[in-house]
Design brief:
Layout: H1 2-49, H2 55-71, H3 89-107, H4 114-128, H5 133-169, H6 177-193, H7 197-201, H8 205-218, E1 268-271, E2 277-279, H9 280-286, E3 292-293, E4 302-303, E5 308-310, H10 312-342
Antiparallel strand pairs: 1-2, 1-5, 3-4
Helix pairs in contact: 3-5, 4-5, 4-8, 5-6
Organism: Exidia glandulosa HHB12029
Subcellular location: Nucleus
Biased composition (Basic residues): 46-58
Length: 345
């Protein structure tokens, strides 16, 4: 009996051992499975924690952009209509008008403006140019006309802007302001260009002053007054007969003597009422008791000290006149010396 137990016991042990081995094998297999799954999972976890790839988001972003672009409708600015100007736009137009005015002020400033520069050049050429004067004076005449045209253009720009501003202020609806501005300027400019030379320059004070400056130098000795300005401008189709012209602008005899002292005007002042000029010192004395009638013969204007303004342009003309007188006297003196040398004793 005991030997049978000893025989059977090992068999149970072997079965248990086999079972134990199987269990250990299953456990080991399970562990291997877990390890394998953990091994597979680790790269995925590290991929999540690691820096994301640039290529994948780029493709996704590009795809999103393409989708967005496909969703956006095509925009054509030509389909947008102009919106009416609000009333506050009149303030901006007022600023633009002021800017044009500043440019015009530069063109017409009191001292050393382009017009005066051309006049001074014409005076110098007339005085010293001799035989070469005429072609140069012709060129300067063209420059003067171009300056007058430029001044007119500035006035046209401001006139159209002022008209638009006035319409906005009365609540008129304007939704194509640029087109209307361009159209208005074009219409006025075309009308101006259709004028003849006499119509453009025949009554222009700047052009008259230019011609008068030349004339006064050329006729300084005979004191002849300049004829009507139309005399210097060729007649064109569309000009009326000279006899039918309204009021022709002409020159006056240039006199630099002060009416009160009968000497050359010094420190000139000009009355804004009647445009007569005087020496400042003589008029200060004349008006010491208060406003008086202009001392020029035939002038009925009442003049006060407040009406007198400095006249730098007249002062320039007087200096030029005195320079010519000095040169002329020197030439006469040289001629007398030559005559004396020719006398045979």
């Amino acid at each position: 009996m005991s030997s049978r137990r000893s025989v059977t016991a090992p068999r149970r042990g072997r079965r248990n051992a086999v079972a134990s081995d199987d269990e250990e094998g299953d456990v080991q297999a399970a562990d291997n499975t877990v390890d394998a799954s953990e091994g597979d999972a680790e790269p995925r976890r590290s991929q999540k924690k690691g820096k994301p790839s640039k290529r994948a988001p780029s493709r996704r972003a590009g795809s999103d952009d393409e989708d967005d672009e496909e969703d956006l409708p095509e925009i054509d600015v030509n389909n947008f209509s102009d919106q009416p100007l609000q009333k506050d736009a009149a303030i901006k137009l007022k600023g633009a008008i002021s800017d044009w005015g500043m440019v015009d002020n530069l063109l017409h400033r009191k001292e050393r403006n382009p017009f005066d520069v051309v006049v001074a050049a014409a005076e110098a050429v007339t005085e010293y140019g001799d035989d070469q004067a005429e072609p140069i004076l012709s060129q300067l005449d063209g420059v003067m006309r171009e300056l007058i045209d430029a001044s007119v253009q500035l006035d046209l720009q401001r006139e159209v802007l002022q008209g638009l501003k006035n319409r906005i202020e009365i609540n008129e609806e304007i939704d194509d302001v640029i087109d209307q501005w361009e159209k208005g300027v074009k219409q006025l400019n075309t009308k101006y260009l259709q004028k003849t030379s006499r119509q453009k320059y025949g009554k222009n004070d700047r052009y008259n002053g230019f011609k008068e400056a030349i004339w006064n130098i050329q006729h300084e000795q005979d004191k002849e007054a300049m004829p009507p300005l139309s005399t210097f401008i060729e007649k064109e189709d569309g000009d009326v007969d000279d006899s039918d012209d309204e009021v022709e602008v002409g020159g006056v005899t240039q006199d630099f003597n002060d009416i009160l002292t009968m000497t050359i005007i010094s420190d000139p002042v000009t009355s804004r009422v009647c445009k007569h000029s005087f020496s400042k010192a003589s008029m200060d004395e004349f008006l010491r008791a208060g406003p008086k009638k202009c001392p020029h013969l035939g002038c009925a204007a009442m003049v006060s000290r407040g009406d007198l303004q400095p006249d730098p342009e007249l002062e320039r003309k007087i200096r030029a006149f005195q320079r010519r007188e000095k040169r002329r006297n020197a030439e006469d003196s040289d001629a007398e010396e030559i005559d004396d040398d020719d006398v045979v004793e």
